Amino acid sequence: MPEIDASGSVGASDLAPLAQLAVWLLSLDAAKEHGLPSAKETLRLISHNAVTLSLGAVAIVDLKQLTALYDLTAAATLEEFRGNVGSLSEAVNRVHHRKGQRECAATIRAHGAFTEIVERFEEMWNGELNTVNDNPIIDIDTGMPNSHANMNTTWLTVLSDKPAQASEALGA
């Protein structure tokens, strides 16, 4: 496999990294022997979000593992305090002048929001992983092509901001 620049593209799908991958694929002897690719196959090599989607899928696995680690850490911490969640309350931490305790309590309270954001991120990402990215799409009723340019990565980038912000709130 070649090294590709996975830092992304602006706007036009994952054009730059996919073009790097396509150059490598097209140089393979097997591709040359079979006369690959055709015009449509060449377009398919660069007109989709495969790099962004794969990096997001890896991030989801990492975020879910991080969530499980947070669960375990919070459970162990609460066990140490004999399940007394009073130490996490905002009211208690307003009167104590213990910055570290106040910050840790706020982090544990933010854990539920982080978990929900990760779940929503995974749900939306899976929707994109399971959608059609061909361009154009051929209408099976009319046989007509519909060019849609639906491989723009902007919304995926915006979607990815939420888990990043939530991770930051937890100090991850």
Counted by DSSP, the helix tally is 7
Q: What is the H-and-E element order?
A: HHHHHHEEH
Strand order of the largest sheet: 1-2
- Which percent band covers the strand fraction? under 5%
Give the biggest sheet.
Answer: 2 strands, antiparallel
List low-confidence stretches.
none
> Strand pairing plus helix content: what structural class?
mainly alpha
Sum up the overall morphology in one term: elongated
Count of distinct strands: 2
CA gyration radius, whole angstroms:
23 Å
Could you walk me through the main structural features you see in this protein, from its secondary elements to its overall organization?
With 172 residues, the chain is mainly α. It has a domain at 14-48. 63% of the residues lie in helices and 2% in strands. It contains seven helices and two strands; from the N terminus they run H-H-H-H-H-H-E-E-H. It has helices spanning 15-26, 29-33, 39-46, 50-80, 90-95, 99-129, 154-169; strands spanning 137-138, 145-146. The chain has a two-stranded antiparallel ribbon. A hairpin with a 6-residue loop joins strand 1 and strand 2 (145-146). The longest helix has 31 residues, at 50-80. The mean pLDDT is 82.
